[in-house]
Amino acid sequence: DTAVSQTPKYLVTQMGNDKSIKCEQNLGHDTMYWYKQDSKKFLKIMFSYNNKELIINETVPNRFSPKSPDKAHLNLHINSLELGDSAVYFCASSQVRDPYEQYFGPGTRLTVT
Amino acid sequence: AQSVTQLDSQVPVFEEAPVELRCNYSSSVSVYLFWYVQYPNQGLQLLLKYLSGSTLVKGINGFEAEFNKSQTSFHLRKPSVHISDTAEYFCAVSPSKRGYQKVTFGTGTKLQVIP
Fold first, then answer.
1. CA contacts within 13 A on the Cβ side of A47
2. Helix ranges, chain A (H)
3. Whole domain around residue A43: which residue ranges?
4. Running DSSP on this structure, what letter comes out for residue A71?
5. Which of residues 25-84 of A touch B (CB under 8 A)?
6. Please, are residues A113 and A19 in contact by the beta-carbon 8 Å criterion?
7. What's the mean pLDDT in A3-12?
8. Does residue B100 have a pLDDT over 80?
9. How many domains does chain A have?
10. What is the DSSP string of chain B?
């Protein structure tokens, strides 16, 4: 009965590779997010989707491409991985009428070597 | 634009002692304020939120926070901490406008409860 799930939990890969992280929520929420948390625990919004439409796109390199096949899923694809992409990536979801109560997934720790 | 400053990166406190985690914000518009908690190896969980009304907000696990507009602060308090409160705590702010608004997080305060 996990609310927001992410796969994989850990991802170790080499520079230049392409990888994807998947996120699914079973809360019936209509808004989903991707956050990046760096080594100093700083948490920054990357993208937000509402009903499969992109509503927030922060200044993220275009190597990062989110995809939302339906309201319950928001995947993150990263091309040409760089060392600086190493971080923990969190998926979250909420209702658009209450965007402040966000439910976070457990995170995906990405390590680029 | 909004910003959040959490003045302490780490706060050690003995079990059953009171604790205050400090948060100050900066904004040119009215804001909503939040505290989230992140337990080790987990995602963030909403602890409490201030949207309007009483400036003293009570949250889960016995935590409370007070919104002080004149001091632009939203400090988090608990009168008696438990070992299980050991976690990272994030203060966050968002413009108080209709529709989706970006939530900006502080850099976190690690609460270490000492037995």
1. 22
2. none
3. 4-99
4. T
5. 31, 40-45, 48, 50, 55-56
6. no
7. 95
8. no
9. 1
10. --EEE-S-SEEEEETTS-EEE--EEE-SS-EEEEEEEE-TTS-EEEEEEE-SS-SEEE-GGG-EEEEETTTTEEEEEESS--GGG-EEEEEEEEE--SS----EE---EEEEEE-
* Interface subset of B 21-50, CB within 8 angstroms of A: 32, 34, 41-46, 49
Return the CATH number at A21: 2.60.40.10
Please indicate, yes or no, if residue A104 is contained in any of the structural domains.
no
Q: Which CATH superfamily hosts domain B3-114? A: Immunoglobulins (2.60.40.10)
The answer as to whether A113 is a domain residue is: no
| A52-77 pLDDT per residue, tens | 888 877 878 999 999 999 989 999 99
Instruction: Flag whether A106 is in a domain.
Output: no
Q: Say if A111 falls within a structural domain.
A: no
Name the minimum distance, in Å, from the CA of B8 to any CA of chain A: 13
